[in-house]
Amino acid sequence: MVTLATKHNDPEAGLSWVERIGFGSGQLGINAINGILGSFLTVYFTNVALLDAAIISTIIAISKIFDGISDVVVGRLVDNTKSKMGKGRSWLFRVCIPFAISVMLLFYVPQNWPSAVKYVYVFVMYNIVNTVCLTSMLVPFYSMISLITRNSYERGLLGNIQQIFQTLGNVIVNAVFVVLLAKFSSDAANPNTQQAFTCTMLIFCIAMVVFSLICVFTTKERVHDEPTERKNDQKKADNGPGFWVTIKALISNKYWVMMFFANLVIFFIIIFNAVGAIYYCLYVFYDMGQYSWLANSATIAQFAIMFVTAALMKKVGKEKLYIAGMVISAIGYLGFGLFATSVPIMIVCNVLKGAGLGISGAMAMGIVADTLTYGNLKTGIDTVGMGNAGVSAAQKIGMGLGTAVFGWILSGAGFDGALDLQGLPQPQSVTTAVEFVFTWIPLVMFAIISVVLILFFHLDRDLKKLKEEKGIVEA
Questions:
Q1: Torsion angles phi and psi, residue 9, rounded to 5
Q2: Phi, psi at residue 273, to the nearest 5°?
Q3: Are the beta carbons of 250 and 72 closer than 8 angstroms?
Q4: Rounded CA gap, 471 and 407, in Å?
Q5: CB 28 within 8 A of CB 168
Q6: What are phi and psi for residue 187, nearest 5 degrees?
Q7: For the chain, how far is it from start to end, CA to CA, in angstroms?
Q8: What is the pLDDT averaged over residues 56-74?
Q9: What percent of the chain has pLDDT over 70?
Q10: Quick check: helix, strand or coil at residue 6?
Q11: What is the pLDDT of residues 244-263, one digit of tens each?
Q12: Number of structural domains, the chain?
């Protein structure tokens, strides 16, 4: 198979920038779609398809049960995949086109169908997109960090690079999505039309397929080790350790468990911020034209900070940098809530929110890879696929719960999408609810997770000690 990846096969050696950037490009395509699902899907359902926010939120919440199961299934499949393309790359190659088609269908709810049938359609298509296709893209992609290299620095760098491209995807979506909706809309006064969403999503879906294929053809999987402590007696077990053995190994890995919950909380907050920004502009500012600066003041700061996180990582380590990012974001949310009447201060606070999230996000997947190495050294059980599946599940559960809780709060506050079409204002309670979920809930959650990590997360110290005991020397 033709590949532009770094030529060597040494899992401890460094990678070329072609491979590093090629790997990150996969996240650019996937996360652009994921970002649209997080930020604009609820708006599409409530303002275009005219579906009830509470019912949609319930559908999403129920779907997360299936979504969580699918992460475990796909993680297991990745662990047992045997392909010349590797455990992760082969999945990206097979699934990117079905993913694009299913996303297009999700954003095309037939207008003339009865309401009950529309909700069934949304349930089915949402699960095809998220439970099946997105899971089959994200779990293998995250697993590739552990499969491309064993070098701890390279893993950290790949985690940083994929986060840069993930944030770049958000920047692009924030900058052009609303503009494209307005350009393609069949109604000059209303960008939220079916035609606008169909044309705009087609552009992003094609881009996702292209970037996924770039990722496949510029990377190489070099880590093929069997479990560390059981390398010899596991030769006969071609399918690796049993399912429950793997689950037990993950649950007993305290650092992986903490990263699971940290990712769940962060992505819960990300969704509150992404969806909340749109509704904040609509029902606090009463001006969608404010969306670009509100969303991108945080996102651009998140993007920019990642270009220095690799240097910072060398000096202070992934763990301390990850926790510092959480604290910085919490400070940003606090300032935004206290000074929400001043646009310049709001921008500064958004910069803090974004910078903190960028610092933590850049370290996240590299730390996850290290938690799996820690678990392997402790138990001798390889949990790369299942471990990354669990983290992917945490992220999607966080996003799903965030979307669901946001919708429930919005519906409870009296939101009615039909009022906008009639030119009537939403109740004041909607404005109050949007302000609450956009600022104060994220602040409390960031504060709690920061305290927990400061007190109990000591992965760098314990992993170093384990490697010394095993006589492992990094390149």
A1: -115, 15
A2: -70, -45
A3: no
A4: 52
A5: yes
A6: -125, 110
A7: 29
A8: 82
A9: 95
A10: coil
A11: 888 888 888 898 899 999 98
A12: 1
The one-letter code for the residue type at 153 is Y
Mean pLDDT rounded to a whole number for the chain: 84
Apex CA 425: angle with CA 424 and CA 429, to 5°? 145
**How far is C-alpha 124 from the chain's CA centre?**
22
Which tens digits make up the pLDDT trace of 6-20? 888 888 888 899 999
pLDDT score of 241 = 64
The CA-atom distances, in angstroms, between 247 and each of 6, 12, 72, 260, 403 are 34, 27, 9, 13, 28
- 386 against 143, higher pLDDT: 143
Range of the domain at 215: 18-221+242-470
| Rg, Å, the chain Cα set | 22
The residues pairing with 190 across neighbouring beta strands, listed in sequence order, are 187
> Do 374 and 462 form a contact (C-beta atoms < 8 A)?
yes
Q: Which residues of 437-475 are buried (b: 16+ CB within 10 A; e: fewer)?
A: bbbebbbebbbebbebbeeebebbeebeeebeeeeeeee
Q: What are phi and psi of 190, to 5 degrees?
A: -140, 110
What number of residues does the chain have?
Answer: 475
Cβ partners under 8 Å of residue 406, min gap 6: 42, 57, 271, 272, 275, 276, 437
| Torsion over CA: 371, 372, 373, 378 (sign) | positive
CA–CA distance, 305 with 167 (Å, rounded to integer): 11
Domain contains 76: yes
CA 148 to chain centre: 20
The answer as to whether 180 is a domain residue is yes
What mean pLDDT is predicted for residues 10-36? 90
Is there a contact between 84 and 204 (Cβ–Cβ < 8 Å)?
no
> Quick check: is 292 in a domain?
yes
pLDDT tens for residues 154-192?
Answer: 888 888 788 789 888 888 888 889 889 989 988 877 788
Each residue of 190-220: pLDDT tens digit?
788 899 999 999 999 999 999 999 999 999 8
* Residue of 67, 281, 248 lying closest to 178 (CA atoms): 281
User: Contact at 8 Å (CB) between 228 and 374?
Assistant: no
What pairs with residue 187 in β-bridges? Answer: 190
Position 231 in a domain: no
Tell which residue, 51, 4, 53, has the closest CA to residue 403.
53
**DSSP-derived 3-state class of residue 187:** strand
Tell me the C-alpha distance between 126 and 352, whole Å.
33
* Interatomic CA distance for residues 366 and 381, integer angstroms: 19
Q: What is the CATH number of the domain that holds 436?
A: 1.20.1250.20
Identity of the residue numbered 73: V
Distance CA 9, CA 152 (A): 16
* Interatomic CA distance for residues 208 and 200, integer angstroms: 13
Are 79 and 384 within 8 A, CB to CB?
Answer: yes
